[in-house]
């Protein structure tokens, strides 16, 4: 009896959170469609691929980022409001690769971005290793 209002508040916040996530998903889907349109427009209208290589690769990676964010939102609903750390690490790596392609003319920034990607890949490796180890320990109990 005493904690009924806690549950009502939690249910309300869960409802609000789900609505906000759906709205964010619709907005990201709109940006995804816009990025795909922009990429197709670039590919169909460009005369010299080499001259517009940076813009094409930046647009391609933007499409991949939007796909990853859409899959993140999908994962949120499939796994009952749980998003794995692995997904965030993948998004970080993709975003940093995009940044390297955009700022490739600045040596120090490129080196720092490459170092950041390396650290994220190491973190992803540790995450997978310890996740598998934890799963094995839980199965043995």
From TrEMBL:
It comes from the Bacteria. The keyword Glycoprotein does not apply. This is Protein PsiE. Belongs to the PsiE family. It is found in: Cell inner membrane. GO terms for biological process: cellular response to phosphate starvation. It is a multi-pass membrane protein. Keywords: Cell membrane, Membrane, Transmembrane, Transmembrane helix.
């Amino acid at each position: 009896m005493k904690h009924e209002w806690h549950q009502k508040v939690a249910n309300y916040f869960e409802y609000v959170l789900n609505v906000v996530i759906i709205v964010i998903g619709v907005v990201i889907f709109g940006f995804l469609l816009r990025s795909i349109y922009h990429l197709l427009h670039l590919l169909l209208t460009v005369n010299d691929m080499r001259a517009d290589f940076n813009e094409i690769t930046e647009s391609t990676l933007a499409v991949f980022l939007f796909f990853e964010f859409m899959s993140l939102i999908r994962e949120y609903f499939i796994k009952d409001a749980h998003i794995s750390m692995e997904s965030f690490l993948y998004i970080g790596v993709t975003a940093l690769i995009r940044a390297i392609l955009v700022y490739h003319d600045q040596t120090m920034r490129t080196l720092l971005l490459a170092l950041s990607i390396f650290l994220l890949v190491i973190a992803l490796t540790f995450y997978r290793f310890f996740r598998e180890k934890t799963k094995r320990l839980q199965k043995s109990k």
